[in-house]
Amino acid sequence: MKGLMMEFQLTLPVVLRRAETLFADKPVISRLPDKSIHRYTYGEMAERARRLAVALGSLGVAPGDRVATLAWNGYQHLEAYFGIPLSGAILHTLNPRLSGDDLAYIVSNAGDSVLLVDETLLPVYEKFKDRVRLEHVIVMSQKTEAPAGLKSYERLLADTDPRSYRERSVDENDAAAMCYSSGTTGRPKGVLYSHRALVLHSIGEAMVDTLGVSERDVLLPVVPMFHVNAWGLPYTCALVGATLVFPGPHLDAESVLELFEKERVTLAAGVPTVWLGILTALEKEPDRWKTQAGLRMVVGGSAAPLSMIKGFDRHGMRIIHAWGMTETTPLGSVSNLVSGLANASDDARYATRAKQGIPSALFEIRARGESGLIPWDDTAMGELEVRGPWVAASYYNAPGSDDRFTGDGWFKTGDIVSIDRHGYIEIKDRTKDLVKSGGEWISTVALENALMGHPAVAEAAVIAANHPKWQERPLAIVTLKKDKTATAEELIAFLATQFPKWWLPDAVEFVDAIPRTATGKFYKMALRDRFKDALLAKA
Amino acid sequence: MKGLMMEFQLTLPVVLRRAETLFADKPVISRLPDKSIHRYTYGEMAERARRLAVALGSLGVAPGDRVATLAWNGYQHLEAYFGIPLSGAILHTLNPRLSGDDLAYIVSNAGDSVLLVDETLLPVYEKFKDRVRLEHVIVMSQKTEAPAGLKSYERLLADTDPRSYRERSVDENDAAAMCYSSGTTGRPKGVLYSHRALVLHSIGEAMVDTLGVSERDVLLPVVPMFHVNAWGLPYTCALVGATLVFPGPHLDAESVLELFEKERVTLAAGVPTVWLGILTALEKEPDRWKTQAGLRMVVGGSAAPLSMIKGFDRHGMRIIHAWGMTETTPLGSVSNLVSGLANASDDARYATRAKQGIPSALFEIRARGESGLIPWDDTAMGELEVRGPWVAASYYNAPGSDDRFTGDGWFKTGDIVSIDRHGYIEIKDRTKDLVKSGGEWISTVALENALMGHPAVAEAAVIAANHPKWQERPLAIVTLKKDKTATAEELIAFLATQFPKWWLPDAVEFVDAIPRTATGKFYKMALRDRFKDALLAKA
User: Fold this and answer.
1) By mean pLDDT, which of A105-119, A299-313, B472-486 is the weakest?
2) Which residues of A touch B6 (CB under 8 A)?
3) Which residues on chain B are in Cβ contact (under 8 Å) with A362?
């Protein structure tokens, strides 16, 4: 027997309607490329999003078409977040840090027909424009003109009558947005988010036990809007009416700290490297910026070192560790402390906060080791598998990628984790980075984090190097701080106090810098190419 | 184009699985009829819920069958909340305060085939048992025996092998639960909740800007589990892992305050009459109970007087005003203060907290006056219409009730409201209680609340009485406090300082007590029957 409730669809137009009805006067604040500040309201944003939807329709964009953006975090990008899905098209965010090759591949693979590009990012567009077929390229800036052959976003909106907007009937399972996962191996693969996934994810982020985003928050997403929809936060903010502060292209520590102070930011989100820069700036000039008491900073993308969590605590700012992937919209888990840890020691509480957290509501986890699902004992390691209403079921236009999903419908994350009895996930490694030494697994992430706790180490990566006896053994690649020194023996002795002997790297290579991917992660494939036989040479 | 996300269904089995996986050790605490305390965990609850599901199946209960409960708030009732839907059947909660007539009608109208009844409520069952056809009656107590002809709940569970439980595939739109609305006019009408509605409602209640239920909460629902699923809170608690404290049949102020102290309750929920009793007890013995700092108390069912909100603030306890209906699962709106009121005067903040609040996420509101939708200006009055994923689309087996829904799919609440620019709803009246005086509307609720602020008044109701010139005029019906006196002239002079002259009641009738419905609301239909022509006699 069916229930007798309304068939109310969970769609982005509902989110926008809520922002406009209840939070029309709440501000959206954006830093522009010239560092000036643009201010308007959710009410004005909604009106312009509808203009964009109408304008796209008049350009011939049809429901289901892919409309790409190549833009920093700002109000025009927010208008695209709503305006493109409002038109029935699919918002496809492009990462300007990718190579021209990758961008050309992604735009072609997605079949994007229109591109919205920040004026400051036109040089990125130049890198791939000859290899893609776009019907329209629309330039976002403060001006109403655009270079020859391109359209001006502001002109387009000005010439549009928002009264001709007609709300379309949208099924919650229709696609609304798309983002390509930045695989460190293989071609990027597209994830196609439904309206339902985005809306449920937004509600999930506003629950107390995840990110707790509320109307009273002033949220600054440092995480780019081209990076899994800035972790869905623009949608969450619109849903709950939180004030949004966009940093534009200015992501340096001083610019972000200035916005923290001036706009009274209460919640921010970004990857560890951003926060490390901010912590360094704070340690240098602890009295320069007055931030809001209890400012929460969500960290994701890669693991936040314990030293960073403690460092911010000293400044009255709280790091909240979260985990997710492009394939999970992205929020999967958040490391708030459960009540069972209320009376735990400081060390135990910090150790838990440094984990990736317990799963969000509706998000289910399990992990599979070499002999089946692992127990939740904080020790056994296995590949994390997840499922839920905001987890991808397949990739877009990517034949041969079925091996990322289990036969019973779970997504294989590629992360090697342990899980403790409270359900806290701890990422030990990526499946492809794990060292398999004589049939035993060694976590490179644990070794890296420990090495980065050494006073002389700036950055450290650990990779699996080939070994004649053990098949693979760990090899550390280290960048020292400018004015510090340390020998390989010293570093290995330092690790020996924290790990079993058979986990210790067989050798340490010192390099000037560790290569990074377009999303700021260590580019381990390049390291492996260079160092995979380094131990054979020594053996 | 469809999104490529998992078709993950929003169902109660997902909620139970989460409670069992992540919060197996969290406590569920119940006060029994003999006042002793029963303690166990969500893990044990889940195991027994599965036993119940298996047992119902062996009794011949089939998917879609209705299984009724007649029970106080306690752990066995919680098992039924999950076990009945787990079996595929529909949980139908019966209100023991209803008359035997109403119960016989409701059980027959729903077609209930099985009843789970608290041993202490067997006398209520006796009142209607000869007028209904139930295949099995199962008695819940601590014992493994039951009176002749009835089954023992504990015996049934003990005799069941939980390993024979097989998880059914459930569509999120399948019915999971049912509750009859206690209309003060006409027959009660059944609302049939889908799994989807209950799950979305639970997530909604855990958002910061609604009730903010979290894993760290210890929640005591004074609101009965037969009253719109205790406002959905048992499901919300299981989803987030909050500790549950059930008061059993002991709802007097001292028993509840004792649980507040002993179990360190952080969040409670109930109707205003319960909280008024608790406030009186606290004022009498302010140092007797040590409650948790900042204890939140959700109030719904009818309006909380401003004096009560202020009274609890003096004791460090925070009243949170909420609004909902059986037809809305029930949470529709919550009166937290938005940031725009952060700098408002104390008076303005209290006035807002006394309103019914702004709508929950995904819950949409509008109000219709005599000439169309009203503006949100805090003044215009209209009937509140709502829609959302947890709003009823129709009633169960109730022909002729279509007039409660608009042509474009909104539910007509029957509440007359004004809405302010922030979206705060203020209930002025029920449509059927409103006084229509010479074409103008007068809110009886506003007059009642003002009258109850007079130091001599214990209770006050205002009804529409027939009038030869104005069609209807307000008539006040008042119960004075035991040792206080006041004349009709004094009370009307008291109101004259707060309302326009044409709003003032034409007369005041003094009575010993105001009749109440089974859910504790003023039974205005009875008052109108008695007093509707009182003004004609005087004219």
Assistant:
1) A299-313
2) 387-389, 391-393, 409, 411
3) 8, 10, 14, 18, 199, 203
Tokens representing B529?
A: 């029957």
Closest alpha carbon within chain A to B243: A339
Parallel, antiparallel or unpaired: strands B189-194 and B218-221: unpaired
Q: How many Å apart are CA A256 and CA B472, to the nearest integer? A: 63
Distance CA(A115)–CA(A96), nearest Å, equals 13
- Asked if residues B435 and B441 have their Cβ atoms less than 8 Å apart, the reply is yes
Give the length of chain B.
539
By C-alpha distance, which of A76, A324, A294 is closest to A197?
A: A324
Q: How far is A243 from chain B (nearest CA, A)?
A: 10
The number of CA neighbours under 13 Å toward the Cβ of B155 is 10
DSSP-assigned states of every residue in A414-470: EEEEEE-TT--EEEEEETTT-EEETTEEE-HHHHHHHHTTSTTEEEEEEEEEEETTT
How far apart, in whole angstroms, are the C-alpha atoms of residue A120 and residue A141?
A: 8
- Per the document, the length of chain A is 539
Amino acid of residue B334: V
DSSP E strands: which ranges in B370-491? 372-373, 382-387, 411-419, 425-430, 435-437, 440-442, 457-467, 471-480
pLDDT at A22 over 80: yes
Quote ipTM for the complex. Answer: 0.91
Side chain identity, residue B467: H
Question: How far is C-alpha B202 from the chain's CA centre?
Answer: 15
Full DSSP string of A210-250 = TT---TT-EEEE-S-TTSHHHHTHHHHHHHHT-EEEE-BT-
For residue B388, what are its two tokens? 């959302």
CB contact under 8 A, B338 and A209: no
Q: Which of A504, A378, A488 is nearest to A450 (CA)?
A: A504
Provide the strand spans (E) within A77-140. 90-93, 112-118, 136-140
**Range in A161-170, A213-222, A438-447, A456-465 with the lowest mean pLDDT:** A438-447
d(CA A360, CA B210): 18
On whether the CB atoms of residues A475 and A463 are closer than 8 A, the answer is: yes
DSSP assignment of B180-220, as one string? EE--SSSS-EEEEEEHHHHHHHHHHHTBTTTT---TT-EEE
pLDDT above 70 (res B270) = yes
Q: Please check whether residue B74 is in contact with residue B97, taking contact to mean a CB–CB distance below 8 angstroms.
A: no
Whether the link from the prior residue into A330 is cis, omega within 30° of 0, is: yes
Confidence band of A539 (pLDDT split at 50, 70, 90): low
Residue that the structure tokens 């199962």 belong to: B138
